Amino acid sequence: MKLPQALTDLIESFEKLPGIGPKSASRIGFYLLNTPEEYLAGFAKNLVKIKSEVKRCSRCHGVSDNGLCSVCADGSRNQKQICVVERAVDMISMEKMGNYKGIYHILGGALNPLDHIGPDDLKIDELVGRVSGDMEIILATNPTIEGEATALYIKRRLESLNLENIKITRIGSGLPMGADLEFADEATLSRAMEGRRAL
Amino acid sequence: MKLPQALTDLIESFEKLPGIGPKSASRIGFYLLNTPEEYLAGFAKNLVKIKSEVKRCSRCHGVSDNGLCSVCADGSRNQKQICVVERAVDMISMEKMGNYKGIYHILGGALNPLDHIGPDDLKIDELVGRVSGDMEIILATNPTIEGEATALYIKRRLESLNLENIKITRIGSGLPMGADLEFADEATLSRAMEGRRAL
Q1: Judged by CB atoms within 8 Å, which residues 16-35 of B form the interface with A?
Q2: Count of structural domains within chain A
């Protein structure tokens, strides 16, 4: 059966989003058919306005309404501890955890030669510019091949600055809480063994 | 951490959609931040245009580009068999199954006194207007309290017409294919027993 073109177009728009398959997209499409016109107009407006209204924080490159994001604008945060993450959404996850009191730096991705993403495509120079002596830099890029390579590259760049009393750390890798050894993959188990601690 | 208002607004728009929880909505919101402006504008246009471009089929009340939907416009379909469903999306599911060759009637919902949906809010009069003698009416409303009540109501309305040679059927209820008796609920099992057939 041929669906109306406008409905097919809308379903395709939803299918392209992360985590939405063809079935969900179709369900959403038909659901929206029965919503009022003002609701759809509001939704459309919300889509378009993020480009003009969501700014990048001028310090950490996270998301903000105006100049600085709420973390950078908060003077009570520890300015001597920078947590480096790939994306703004990673910063939100960290903030949800709630017990990190330092500041952030968002790279905008990870090094990925296959996708032609090199150091100049990330906010690495900007990070280097923020680092001074007596600081801890926590490299919290994802524990993937790209994230590990990015962490290693940044470590070398920062070490070459020869700053005094600088500590470069990497977030811990291992078994996630609640996991089962039986189903853990080899790479994760190997990291868990390397990262073992005295009790 | 406070997110920019425009981003929060967009995430809330997605959260209201069926099947999308707060985590998925947030993921989509951050994903869309990194998409080009033209993409967002196209998405917004697709949202708004469904109201003006998707029409109701003048015969079955399903979705169509213009006057008739592709099923009603297809002269080869059996005009003496009407499958009555709650929503246009149910018709799409039936068409995907592929072996029904009759036509449809979309009610636009089911009777639901709690939501103040009575017979006049559904396309029941329109269905009655389409029914003539020598026909089969397959009541394929959902096997829920509302869907069962709607099927029963329609059955009584159609019987009161005293048409010749009219057959009113209800789609089968029972265990879905691939299900496990152990995990079936009592209502489904009870229906499966009632609906048992000679082998």
Answers
A1: 17-20, 24, 26-33
A2: 2
Distance (Å, whole) CA A146 – CA A112: 6
pLDDT of residue A75: 92
In a domain, A23, yes or no: yes
**8 Å CB contact between B80 and B134:** yes
What is the reported pLDDT for A129? 95
Whether chain A has a CB inside 8 Å of the CB on B44: the answer is yes
- Name the pairing type of β-strands A135-139 and A166-170: parallel
Residue A158: domain span: 76-170
Nearest chain B CA: its distance from A65 CA (Å): 5
Count Cα atoms within 13 angstroms, Cβ side, for B76.
Answer: 3
* Contact of B84 with B138, CB cutoff 8 Å: yes
Q: State how far Cα A193 lies from the chain centre.
A: 27
- According to DSSP, the residues that pair with B192 across neighbouring strands are none
Q: Does A166 share its domain with A81?
A: yes
CB distance from A5 to chain B under 8 Å? yes
* Cβ pair A65, A55 in contact under 8 A: yes
Are A88 and A147 found together in one domain? yes
- The rounded distance, in Å, linking the Cα atoms of A39 and A26 is 18
Give residue A188's identity as a one-letter amino acid code. T
The span from the CA of A20 to the CA of A12, in Å, is: 10
Q: Are strands B135-139 and B78-85 parallel, antiparallel or unpaired?
A: parallel
Q: Locate the chain B residue with the closest alpha carbon to A19.
A: B24
- In the structure, what pLDDT confidence band is assigned to residue A26 with cuts at 50, 70 and 90? very high
DSSP state of A112: B
CA dist., res. B86 & res. B117, Å (int) = 13
The angle subtended at Cα A71 by Cα A67 and Cα A73, nearest 5°, is 45
Q: Tens digit of pLDDT for each residue in B44-57?
A: 999 999 988 999 99
Q: Are B84 and B127 in contact (CB under 8 A)?
A: yes
Question: Is residue B151 domain-resident?
Answer: yes
- pLDDT for residue A76: 95
CA end-to-end distance (rounded Å), chain A: 64
**pTM exceeds 0.90, yes or no:** no
Residue B199, exposed/middle/buried by CB under 10 A (0-12, 13-18, 19+)? exposed
